Amino acid sequence: MSKMNSTPVAVLTAAVMAASVGLLVQYSSTKRAAEQSVPTAAAVAASNAAAGQQTTNSSGPISTANAQATKPMMWAASAPGRIEPRVGDVRIGSQVPGRIAEVLVNINDRVLTGDLLVRIDDEEAQARIVAAEAEAAVRRRERDAETIGRLAQDRRNADDAVASADRALFQARRDLDRVIVGRRAATPTSTDDELVKARAAVVAAKDKAEQERTALRRVQATANMPLPTRLESGLSTARADLLLAETAIERARVRAASDGTVLQLNAKVGETIAPSPELALVVMGDLTGLRVRAELEERDVSKVRVGQKVVVRSDAFPGREFKGNVATMALSLAPPRLASRGPRRPNDVDTLEVLINIEGTTTLLPGMRADVFFVPDATVQAAPETKSN
After folding, report:
1. Most exposed: 20, 273, 326, 330, by fewest CB within 10 Å?
2. Beta-strand runs (E) in 133-275
3. What is the C-alpha to C-alpha distance for residues 147 and 311, in angstroms, rounded to an integer?
4. Beta strand pairing status for 309-313 and 60-62?
C-alpha cells in the first residue's frame, strides 16, 4: 500500500480550523452588539422620567417625581478651595534680629490680643532704657527750676501727663509679660485672675495714653502759645530717647496681633532669627469660625453672587457635605494660586477669588483642600450677549 502524502492533508485541516475560528468571532461580535443595543432599565426609567412619562418594572410603576429625585444635583458652578480660619491666617514674625530667649506658647494654645508669644534677647535695650530714664529725670529738674507764664505751664503739665501715661503703658505691658511667664512656669506663680487684671490694665493704660496725647494737641493749639524754651526742648529730647529705648524693648517681644489659636510655631529657644516676610515665628487663626478661599474660573463668574448658598466637600470626609454661603467676591481676576504647582502655561485661565463662610461648627481643619459647589440661584442672571453687526 502506497504511503499518502501528509502535506495536503495538513493544509486542508488548517484551512478548516481558520474558517471555524472566523465564524465564531463573527458570531460573538454580533451577539455583543445586540446586547449593547438593548437599553437597560435604568436608562429607560431616566429617559421616560425626562419625558414626563411613567415606567414600570417587576415591582410596579415608578413615578416621575421619584425618577427625578434620583437624578444628581446640577450645580451652577464649582471651584477648588482651601479651608482657613474665619479671618485668614495671621503670620507673625520678628521685627528685629536677635536670639530667641523665651517661647511662651505651644501649638493649639488660645491667646488674646497683646499676649507675649516669643521674647528675643533684649539686654542691650534694657541698658539703654536705664540711661535714658536717668537723663530724662535730670532734664526735668532743670526745666522745673525755670519760671514761665501760665500758657507755657499748661503746656508743660500736658506734656508731663503724656510722658507719665507712656511710662504707665510700658509698665503695664511688663506686668502682663511677668504674669504670662509665671503662668508658663513649671510651678505657676500667677493665677487666672491676675492674668485678666493685667490684660485689663494694659487696655486702660493704652486708652489713657491716647487721651493725654489728644489733650496735649489741644493745648498746643491754644492761641498765643509761646515757643518752648531751651530747657523744655532738652527734656523733650531726653524723653524721646527714653521712648525709643522702650520701643526697642517692645520690638523684641513678639505679641499676638489678635485673639486666636496658635496653629504653627517655628521658634525655638536659642535660635538666631532675623526679620523676614517668608519666616513666620507664629501662625495664628480664629477657629471660632471657618471659611473657604475658592478660585472661580472666569467663565463661571456670572453664575455666582454674594449670599449664594454653596456646598463644600472634602476628600478627608468622604460622603459628607458642609453648607455655607458666599461672603465676598474679588473685584478683579488673578492667576490661580491654589492649583498651581509649576510655571504657568500660556493657556492657563485666570480666576476670581471667592470667600465662603461655612455654617456652624465643623470637623474641617485649616489647610485642607476642598471642592466648592454653588447652588443654582434664580437671582443670578448671565449677562445678555450682544449681537455683532
Report:
1. 20
2. 253-255, 260-265, 272-273
3. 75
4. unpaired
**Ramachandran region of residue 60, left (φ > 0), alpha (ψ -120 to 50) or beta?**
left
Tens digit of each residue's pLDDT (9 = 90 or more) over 104-141:
999 999 999 999 999 999 998 999 999 999 999 999 99
Question: Cα-Cα-Cα-Cα dihedral of 267, 269, 272, 273, to 10°?
Answer: 30
C-alpha to C-alpha distances, 350 to 301, 335, 340, 355, nearest whole angstrom:
11, 5, 11, 16
pLDDT for residue 155 is more than 70: yes
pTM: 0.70
- Give the position of cell 471657618: 290
Write out the E strands in 38-155. 55-57, 60-62, 77-85, 90-92, 98-103, 110-111, 116-120
Question: What one-letter code names the amino acid at 246?
Answer: E
Whole-angstrom distance, CA of residue 178 vs CA of residue 102: 12
Q: Whose grid coordinates read 506658647? A: 105
